[in-house]
Specification:
Layout lengths: L4 E12 L2 E12 L3 E5 L6 H8 L7 E6 L2 E2 L5 H6 L2 E3 L12 H13 L9 H5 L2 H10 L15 H14 L4 E5 L7 H14 L4 E5 L3 H7 L2 E6 L2 E6 L1 H5 L2 H8 L5
Parallel strand pairs: 3-8, 3-9, 6-7, 7-8
Antiparallel strand pairs: 1-2, 1-4, 4-5, 9-10
Helix pairs in contact: 3-5, 3-6, 5-6, 6-7
Length: about 250
């Protein structure tokens, strides 16, 4: 792997009982970049994410992160290496406050499994950092609000805050603006840009406006294979992309 490449796959393939969801995907993500993975529905984007973080095991192919072959590593081990993902469906603890959600992630980052059983004073020592992260994602004033009571866009912002609490070197964001109103899309777009200042971001995203504003490089998948790669201007003019993706009207 080149020094400026943080994540690379070679021949990444996933088959499900004869159906090939991802076929021979060679992907290179440059360190410090925002790299988008786009394509029509069923193109294999989320399957790729699940392979990279080993929520699914590849049928064949290799995955390298920071020069290390992580193929076959457990999801928790991959997260500890600094490769952390969010999910398409918001994953927060609904009955905990925003601050408590971030505090849980901060406890994981410290590597102490049983902080849940510590006294309240010990846990309160994490509050300042939790509140800093909430401010960073635009949730100042919502520290004591139950996560389940937050509007959808703010729940996604909270999820990004909990992801940042794990201090990832690389973030994988699965459809971070899915289902959002315009004002929430703008807020999350700005948040991703800020979060990417000192880390690498790989995102699956259906909103082409977001992709065009954020992405340094784009990989287009169709039927599980790489169809095109380049900056937004390059891929948006690619005839096969226009036919398979841009002309379809959906992600």
């Amino acid at each position: 792997m080149a020094e400026d490449t943080i994540l690379e796959t070679r021949g990444l393939t996933k088959e499900f009982k004869g159906f090939v969801a991802v076929r021979d995907v060679d992907l290179k993500v440059r360190r410090g970049s925002i790299h988008a993975l786009i394509g029509p529905n069923g193109a294999g984007k989320t399957t790729c994410f699940n392979l990279l973080t080993h929520f699914l095991a590849p049928t064949r192919g290799r995955i390298h992160y920071n020069g290390r072959d992580i193929t076959g590593s457990r999801p928790a081990a991959i997260a500890r290496m600094g490769l952390v993902r969010s999910f398409q469906i918001s994953a927060v603890f609904a009955h905990l406050t925003a601050r408590e959600n971030v505090r849980v992630a901060l406890q994981r980052a410290r590597g102490h499994s049983f902080d849940f059983w510590k006294d309240e004073r010990t846990l309160e020592g994490l509050d300042a950092r939790a509140d800093e992260l909430l401010v960073a994602v635009g949730l100042a004033g919502f520290e004591r609000t139950a996560a389940g009571e937050l509007a959808y866009g703010r729940k996604r912002a909270l999820e990004i805050a909990t992801t940042l609490a794990l201090e990832p070197e690389m973030m994988l964001l699965d459809e971070p603006t899915a289902g959002m109103a315009h004002e929430d899309v703008e807020r999350i777009t700005a948040l991703i840009r800020r979060a990417a200042k000192d880390r690498t971001v790989l995102m699956v995203e259906h909103n082409l406006s977001v992709v065009s504003k954020l992405s340094d490089r784009i990989t287009v998948l169709a039927r599980g294979e790489v169809l095109a790669e380049g900056d937004y201007d390059t891929v948006s003019r690619h005839p096969a992309v226009v036919e398979a993706y841009l002309g379809s009207g959906h992600a």
